[in-house]
């Protein structure tokens, strides 16, 4: 039986391998192949480029989902949004909650007019999240939707 953590890892690897051309169908196909291998006792989570001919590309438009959580501290929202604002991203929706001392945040961000591509934004957000001491996940909306249909 594959745990949820393992499944998410497989999905992440499939998305990484497929790149910007990942569709729900291609992600499902790659994940199904890996799960078949796993069931046969071959728990290889390495995905081969021979599984798909989709070129690796970078997302430069559309929307991304940014989630963050961790111990509450001043400056978390400011740190995250300053990266997005510096690149001209449009914050379209925000949900934030503090449960006792646990901070949670979900943002829907339009990167269509951003001066940076998705991977650059993701890297900068990762750097900020380390400085702030929170866990942060940035995913392209298309991949987020595909992952939650599998």
The CATH class label of the largest domain is Alpha Beta
Question: CATH superfamily of the largest domain, please?
Answer: ACT domain
The CATH level-2 architecture of the largest domain is identified as 2-Layer Sandwich
Report the average pLDDT across residues: 80
The fold-level CATH name of the largest domain is Alpha-Beta Plaits
Q: Which consecutive residue ranges, at least 5 long each, have pLDDT under 50?
A: 43-57
- Total DSSP helices: 5
Tell me the count of domains.
2
Shape assignment: globular
Give helix % range: 40-55%
Distance between the termini: 16 Å
Could you provide a short overview of the structure?
The chain is of the alpha+beta class and 150 residues long. Helices cover 43% and strands 23% of the residues.
